[in-house]
């Protein structure tokens, strides 16, 4: 039986909502968090779900948005343009919390959102966006692609860079503990969030 103290928000719905966004913000800031690497689902051209891991770059509770980055030549970019419906999930082993998110994704390529995201990117991250050919291209051999050096990555990578802002529409929080799991969900209701406890 676990003897660790229960979180202060254990039976407090509003505090759970605040903790949820706090965990997402912590995930954006720290690689050790399970929320740093959510899995993102989009809908493929054939209508089925498609999943991949991304780095969570920002979580803004006030705006109700999340941000990640991708190559605008990638499948996920095309899928978001075709259908903005998306979902994310992540589990943090340390806190035993799963967060599931549903929302609508928008690809930002040439606006202030993209510029700020690019400006905040490290040189080693920028290099990926200068890869040739683009992500998903069939290669004759595993090493038949090229990456620019960090000095050239600014010019070569920026045209391929996209910031993805997810406008969150629904949140599902699950905390696992032998003394009793806790699950709650919220959905956007105008400018507010409406939520409640759910059976886990
Ligand atoms: C730890 C990890 C972090 C990743 N972060 C990103 C990311 O932030 N953005 C991204 O586009 N792909 C990221 N990827 C690669 C994607 O998971 C995926 O393989 C790639 O983007 C192609 O996906 P797509 O064909 O669905 O577009 C990451 C993969 C791993 C394993």
From TrEMBL:
Q: Where is the Pyridoxamine 5'-phosphate oxidase N-terminal domain?
A: 39-126
Q: Which InterPro entries match?
A: Pyridox_Oxase (IPR000659), Pyridox_Oxase_N (IPR011576), Split_barrel_FMN-bd (IPR012349)
Entry-linked SUPFAM superfamilies: FMN-binding split barrel
Q: Which domain of life is it from?
A: Bacteria
A Pfam family for this UniProt protein?
PNPOx_N
Q: Which GO terms describe its molecular function?
A: FMN binding; pyridoxamine phosphate oxidase activity
Gene3D superfamilies assigned: Electron Transport, Fmn-binding Protein, Chain A
**Keyword Plastid on entry:** no
Q: One GO BP annotation here?
A: pyridoxine biosynthetic process
Give the UniProt keywords, A-Z. Flavoprotein, FMN, Oxidoreductase, Pyridoxine biosynthesis
Q: What cofactor does its activity depend on?
A: FMN
Indicate yes or no for the key word tRNA processing: no
Q: What is this protein called?
A: Pyridoxamine 5'-phosphate oxidase-related FMN-binding protein
Q: Which organism is it from?
A: Methylobacterium oryzae CBMB20
């Amino acid at each position: 039986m676990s003897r660790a103290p229960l979180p202060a928000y254990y039976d407090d719905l509003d505090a759970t909502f605040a903790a949820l966004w706090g965990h997402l913000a912590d995930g954006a800031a720290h690689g050790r968090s399970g929320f740093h690497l959510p899995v993102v689902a989009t809908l493929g051209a054939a209508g089925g779900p498609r999943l991949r891991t991304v780095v969570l770059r920002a979580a803004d509770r006030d705006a109700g948005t999340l941000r990640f980055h991708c190559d605008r030549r990638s499948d996920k970019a095309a899928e978001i343009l075709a259908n903005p419906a998306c979902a994310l999930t992540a589990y943090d082993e340390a806190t035993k919390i799963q967060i599931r998110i549903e929302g609508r994704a928008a690809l930002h390529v040439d606006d202030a959102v993209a510029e700020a995201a690019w400006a905040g990117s490290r040189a080693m991250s920028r290099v990926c966006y200068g890869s040739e050919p683009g992500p998903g291209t069939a290669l004759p051999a595993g090493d038949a692609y090229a990456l620019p050096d960090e000095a050239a990555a600014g010019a070569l990578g920026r045209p391929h860079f996209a910031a993805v802002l997810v406008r969150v529409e629904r949140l599902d929080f699950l905390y696992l503990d032998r003394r009793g799991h806790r699950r709650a969900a919220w959905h956007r209701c105008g400018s507010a969030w409406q939520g409640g406890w759910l059976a886990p």
